[in-house]
Specification:
The chain has 199 residues and is α/β, with parallel strands linked by helices. It has a single domain, classed as 4-Layer Sandwich (Purple Acid Phosphatase, chain A, domain 2). Helix content is 32%, strand content 16%. Strands 3-4-5-6 form a 4-stranded mixed sheet. A two-stranded parallel sheet has the order 1-2. It has a two-stranded antiparallel ribbon with strand order 7-8. Helix 5 links the parallel strand 4 and strand 5. Helix 2 packs across helix 3.
């Protein structure tokens, strides 16, 4: 944010989800997003499947094991608690406030993807946080550029997709998988220049 993007007031930054469960600093990531928003930066935060699992675990004890299996234990440790019900209300409010998708001009931003087979793709919340596609035929979607994450791709593939002017761009280059060849980078996509950055 500060060294590569060099975010400034007037920029719009759209984050695609999965701020928790991916490493030892989930609390610090969430605190940083909240701090940026509190300082007046235009940061749009979308809901990822990991935030959805956390909220499920917060509301329903039966959902805790699934979340724990998917990184929830690291998140609890990061927040210094032993149960999602012990999360401070400001964090629960933050997770509950996350958007499922964001639309601006010809762009649609979403954590995973959309249901291409129903009348209104924006009604299927499951697809938005769990299901990725590399193309769409739905009239509402096919002429939009869709930016998403969720399904890790090698950064060479991302560069190829952007260079080919495709209208579905997956910018998840698996920053959590730094032990795998071709992954291990955090990626950004700047819409006006159609440029990508890797850290």
């Amino acid at each position: 944010m500060e060294e590569t993007i060099r975010i400034k007031h007037g920029d719009k930054v759209i984050l695609l989800g999965d701020y928790v469960d991916r490493g030892t600093q989930s609390k610090e990531v969430v605190d940083y997003i909240i701090e940026l928003q509190d300082k007046g930066f235009d940061v749009i935060s979308l809901l990822g499947n990991h935030e959805a699992m956390l909220l499920d675990a917060y509301k329903n004890n039966d959902a805790v094991p699934l979340w724990i299996q998917n990184g929830g234990a690291e998140t609890l440790k990061s927040f210094g608690i032993n149960s999602p019900t012990n999360l401070q209300s400001k964090y629960i409010d933050f997770f509950k406030s996350l958007n499922l998708f964001y639309s601006i001009e010809e762009y649609l931003f979403v954590h995973a993807g959309f249901n291409d087979s129903i009348e209104n793709p924006f009604e299927d919340t499951y697809h938005m946080i769990w299901k990725c596609r590399d193309h769409y035929t739905h009239p509402i979607l096919r002429n939009r550029t869709i930016i998403h994450g969720h399904c890790p791709v090698k950064y060479d593939l991302l560069k190829e997709v952007v260079h080919s002017n495709k209208n579905v761009i997956n910018i998840d280059t698996g920053c959590v998988y730094n032990d795998r060849v071709g992954y291990g980078k955090l990626s950004t996509f700047e819409v006006h220049s159609r440029s990508i950055n890797f850290v």
